[in-house]
Design a protein that fits this description.
The complex is a heterodimer of chains A (about 160) and B (about 100). By secondary structure, chain A is α+β, with helices and mostly antiparallel strands. Chain A has 2 domains: about 120 residues, no CATH class; about 40 residues. In chain A, strands 4-3-1-2-5 form a 5-stranded mixed sheet. In chain A, strand 3 and strand 4 form a beta hairpin. Chain B has one domain: YaeB-like fold (2-Layer Sandwich). Chain B has 2 helices and 5 strands, in the order E-H-H-E-E-E-E. In chain B, strand 2 and strand 3 form a beta hairpin. With about 100 residues, chain B is α+β, with helices and mostly antiparallel strands. A 5-stranded mixed sheet of chain B has the order 1-5-4-3-2. Classes of the chains: A alpha+beta (about 160), B alpha+beta (about 100). Chains A and B meet through helix 2, helix 3, strand 6 and helix 4 of A and strand 1, helix 1, helix 2, strand 2 and strand 3 of B.
Chain lengths: ~160, ~100
């Protein structure tokens, strides 16, 4: 397993590794692969995303998340994988030490990308204005949640089905 | 886990469902069907969504409705055993709701 050279261990003395498929990372990887003449058919894609420490201690349990990539990068959107396979590693003397059992095949290439990098640069494919609108929507939604303005989704769906 | 939606998300859902029913009469319930399927799946595997980022100290994830091409943006509250749907947003540029 050879981690990406982009990873910096500075300030991270313990973290959770998660196997994930990420749209932004896929796009970035796909661009590199095109330049390198590779195709995703001959390259299994596994993404490890590092996300520790989280920005809030209360968020720590939520950080574990994974997906196992396939050739979905050929498509505009990734497929999200239905499974969890979080791995844990430590940084010791500036080296990432990962000692976890895995079912991944021998020789499988695993790339590591800091979660913050993915979120900051490739969290979506929206334009700036639309992203700002989405963020406003989510912020307003959180305010709704804090004000108790919430309903069961199944009830909302049932109501709309009856109306349409 | 229980899946709930905020008032804002409810308006976005209603708008998307209405658009779909008016503009795709051959599949007028497709959006709601996909939404219902996503609800069933996420209620059993809440952290399967792709991490999107943080808003107001919440970790926001998203889930793609592949046929109708909307993203569900949600957060997971493990203590309350609730998945909170915050927004339903077009996955393509220019397809976000105008509320």
């Amino acid at each position: 397993m050879s981690p990406s050279p982009r990873i910096s261990a500075a300030g991270r003395n313990y973290f959770s590794l998660t196997v994930a498929e990420c749209a932004g990372a896929h796009r970035r990887r796909a661009d590199v692969d095109r330049r390198e003449g590779l195709t995703h058919k001959n390259r299994a894609l596994i993404w490890l995303i590092i996300g520790w420490p989280p920005r809030s201690a209360s968020l720590a349990p939520s950080m574990a998340f994974c997906g196992l990539g396939d050739v979905a990068a050929q498509k505009r959107e990734p497929r999200y994988v239905r499974g969890m396979s979080a791995l844990k590693a430590r940084v010791e003397n500036g080296r990432i030490k990962l000692d976890e059992p895995t079912d991944l095949p021998e020789g499988q290439i695993v790339e590591l990308i800091p979660l913050d990098e993915v979120i900051a640069t490739d969290g979506d494919d929206l334009g700036d204005a639309e992203r700002a609108a989405l963020h406003r929507s989510i912020d307003e939604s959180i305010e709704d949640e804090e004000a108790g303005k919430v309903e069961d989704l199944s009830k909302i769906i049932a109501e709309l089905r009856a109306q349409l | 886990m229980k899946v709930r939606a905020t008032g804002r998300a409810k308006r976005e859902i209603a708008r998307a469902a209405l658009w779909w029913s008016k503009n795709r009469p051959e599949a007028l319930l497709l959006f709601l069907d996909e939404l219902a399927a996503a609800e069933r799946f996420l209620s059993t595997a809440p952290i399967s969504g792709q991490i999107y980022g943080y808003r107001k100290n919440r970790l926001i994830r998203r889930w793609l409705l592949e046929k109708t091409e909307y993203h569900l943006y949600f957060s997971v509250n493990r203590e309350a055993q609730v998945i909170m749907l915050h927004s339903v947003w077009g996955a393509r540029r220019g397809r976000g709701p105008k509320l």
